[in-house]
Write the structure tokens for this entry.
Amino acid sequence: MRRKLLAVFAHPDDEFYRAGGTLALLAEQDFQVQVLSVTQGEWGIPKLPPEKARAKRENELYCACRALGILPPLFWDYPDGHLDQINEAKAVAKLTELIREWRPDTLLTWPPSGVSGHPDHQAVSRWTKKAFLQAANHHYQPGRLPAHPVSSLYYLVLPQALIDELGLAKLHGVPEEEITLQVDVSSAWDKKKTAILCHESQLAKSSVLKLMKEKRDLFFKKEYFKRIYLDPSPGDTASKDLLAHLK
């Protein structure tokens, strides 16, 4: 079976600025890469009513996934901007069920800070961590799929030193020693850039795109990850830790 990564995010454009190159590189190695956006971003285009914004942002994410060579995205219909009001236990159970059905080897999501501090990002981070642990639990109700512990869970992160260098004071970083993996995505830059441009409704909001080219390259052409869990069970666990293949 082809190895799989599931990336769990809050909004249709969340993944491409900080992980798009890595997702493209994994797809080039014939790994299946699936992005889940738990909202449809319906409040992300101020000049459009929610119904039209939802349709536009869905189309943008389909475009971005095609650009990276990954699977078409999955969408849930949780309310944009209000994930902290969702019943967390139910959301975690829903995500756990998806993990058990799709059986990814690696999960990727926001860190607890959400990088930008967005409450939706923070909620998805909590849900994914809890679902990771529940999906690895062998003691669940009969009649479900056999347990399939996910081998690894990663947060996408930014080094605090890079944030300071670029003057992005509103973002939350981590110390250098907490970074498990940094990926040079220069070879996938064309794909990543095309994916970013697919999200045309969000481009004007990006302070990073307004930086000088040298600083933009520092931000976009390396991606950083912090591994939270690695399954300690016997067997060839390392081969299932998909991001480790990019070292």
